[in-house]
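Progress report, Aim 2. The chain analyzed during this reporting quarter is listed below.
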Amino acid sequence: MQKNTFSFSRRGSSLALGATALLGLAAIAGCGGSGSSSSSGDSGSGLPVAKAAQAQVIRGRALVTTYGCVDCHSQGLNNPASPTWMAGYSSAAGPHGPGIFQIGPFATYAANLTPDATGIGTFTDRQIYNALKHGLDPGATPDAVITGETPGQGNFPAAPHYLAVPMPWPSTRNLSDDDLWSLVAYLKHGIKAVANTVPDSQGPPDFWASSYTADKVGPYPLPMYPTGSEQFAP
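Predicted structure tokens for the chain:
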């Protein structure tokens, strides 16, 4: 049984958000080839080297409200004034409501992404960043600066617990660090806590590792533009 801390998914699609919204975002923000990682930390303002900045929170809000995170984490309601804003799957939605997915034999649920103890409130900013960047479940991954993608090297866990399949982190990992830290800033420091205990997601013994191989989700970092399937034609 695996706690699915992040499960950005579009209702009615097995890979929701990955198929449309966040893949589109990744194509825009990550098409530079090597992960497109300008870092907000380099500016000396805001996460990760200082407290969250309001500009980061506003940028994170724009990303969350534009690219479909709400389809599951806010029951499909794109309204930051909602009392259950980003609070995840609600049992009131029923077995076919937004935020619940049947992935083969496993049921997974969109998590509470508010800074409540029932959501992401007990995790550090870096743990949330590592979830978005590396696909690592913050509930099973220490707070550490990860410098590689190979298990057991560069602080990458030797036995990684990946997020459940509906979460399109293979797309979010291609966002710039500015965008990733802005998402962290908004979720951790820009919204109110909502108490909502989401059921634990089910998962395979390998914690989805076999589902996230390069042949299934694509390489990281992305190859430099243009590849053999791309061309610039103004």
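The first helix runs from residue 21 to 29. The chain is about 25% helix and 5% strand. These observations will guide the mutagenesis work planned for the next reporting period.
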